[in-house]
Amino acid sequence: xxxxxDGFAMIPVISAVEEMTPTDYRGRILSLIxxxxxxxxxxxxxxxxxxxLRSRGFDAVQTDLALQLVLHLLSRSGxxxxxxxxxxxxxxxxxxxxxxFAAESGRYLATVDLVIRFLQGRDSTLAHRxxxxxxxxxxxxxxxxxxxxxxxxxxxxxLAWAFGALGVQDRARHLCTLFLSDLADxxxxxxxxxxxxxxxxxxxxxxxxxxxxxxxALAAPLTLLDETLRHLTRNAVQQHQPQMVLVTVPFPGxxxxxxxxxxxxxxxxxxxxxxxxGGYVNTELRELQEPRVFDYFDFVTLDDxxxxxxxLVDHLQGRRALDQLVRTYYRSSDTGRVQYSRAxxxxxxxxxxxxxxxxxxxxxxxxxxxxxxxxxxxxxxDGRWNKLTIAHGCYWKKCSFCDISLDYIGRYDxxxxxxxxxxxxxxxxxxxxxxxxxVDEAAPPKGLRSLxxxxxxxxxxxxxxxxxxxxxxxTPDLCQLLADSGCIAISGGLEVASDRLLALMEKGVSxxxxxxxxxxxxxxxxxxxxxxxxxxxxxTVQETVDALEYVRQLFEEGCLHSGFFHRFTxxxxxxxxxxxxxxxxxxxxxxxxxFAKNDVEFVDPTGVDHDALGESLTKAxxxxxxxxxxxxxxxxxxRSRVPRSTVPRNYIARALQSRSSG
Length: 662
Known about the structure:
The protein has 24 helices and 19 strands. The protein has 662 residues and is of the alpha/beta class. Helix 3 runs antiparallel to helix 5 (105-119), helix 18 (476-485) packs across helix 20 and helix 21 runs parallel beside helix 23 (610-625). The protein is globular, with a radius of gyration of 26 Å.
């Protein structure tokens, strides 16, 4: 099935509204999740694509090779393979992680299957033995239990502080997560230095101007991880017998494995068509010129995959020429150069993309871990959430740090609340689980109100959380309505917590407004998490200190329960990346790019050492989340001398009072 550029006659392209019938394409389409994404729940892209394709009558299936790889490695037989190789590795003489693993290998082999079963929820009574700290071997990662923010304490007291006297299940889950982290360290030091549970070989793909680093890695001898993934790929192809394989790469940390999978499919089943897409492609490969990519993949598609896939099947049926594909890269058989088909056709409306399906994915095999002691971050790693979208894109699409020029942000499209509720009911019936993570860039207040009313009207009992903008539309009444409909947590961007910088980034909110909105959610019993940012163009040390003081007061007043500071990164598709002069910075020149382009370094005339400040911000907010240090002078969190905050100590309290008096 190697379709050549001149293999079809030039025939008129059918209308975009003239969709194919189910019998037009009889080949099976397999969607793959490559390592590594999440351990606790499937990444949703394959569920979305499989649901859409089935709604159009295609024979579509899916599998999660990321989960399969982890479950093989973290098994008794997998650990034995790791142990055999570790004993021959030089790290055996230098690494504490490897030495502990070898010395305690009997205990690791005896307990790893028990740990996996516990994290899968299959043996909850193990929690008591695990929490006793007498069952599991403890490597270097467990040392974090013995010291909390510089206070010498024994590990048991630290755990009790974090989880309380009755939190046995959570305590055990956290210990098991440290157990897995120790094993990940061993894998990284003896098998593959690029290994991470989430960001596997990320440096090979993130903003890499050329394909050379990835090509070198793909030509290298196979590691144990590679050998395992190759075996799993062969099994998937043999089991499903696909004619087309869709490989989704949401993050740079999935790219290496995706190319390895495609490499082996070419070897095992050269007639199978391979297609690459996903969030990484949509953001980093928009200027792709590298022909070697097509030694692995036949096609690379941009943005939402539904319309490009329909056009691609048209092509395979002889009804569309290559240059009439939609948002698709391919390699010319005549010139060997990368070509991009720019045919413009309307995307499939959000209301007609179908209902995601998790059929074919082993939902009970995912692992609920508990890494960071952060109430919002644990939702990302603990529990299996059905991921669903309320609307496509962002209704605001103005923030200067965001990729608003790209389709996944810029094209806003909605669906009726009744249809969304139908999708929710179908998913609950299929999965048997009532937890939902709404994965919108920013869920619209109007859409959330309509959905909440529909859920209450149907008496649908679900739990849900998602991301919003802290805008004034979220009144106390609306927040209570959302809580009544099942909302348990929300996250939103306070970003720099500076009115000057919020205006510069066109966030559309103020600190006082954020205080009032977050308090409305908090009063409704909803957990509130703030995304915070530092290092935005022209941000001064004074503004950073003031931002932390605002955050301290928000925690003190019960507006926030959780937060996290992110370092600002300039991307090529954001307003800052496209018009840096508006934000007072100069972009550093990029090298010639034939592969990936996303992050762009810049020169900020303020010259602030934001990385040094970031360490202090991280430490402070971690303590604020646990009610520690809320009365201290904000300057005490910084290692170096910083100016006194200019924010009145009662600023947030007064902002909340103005709402009450109003």
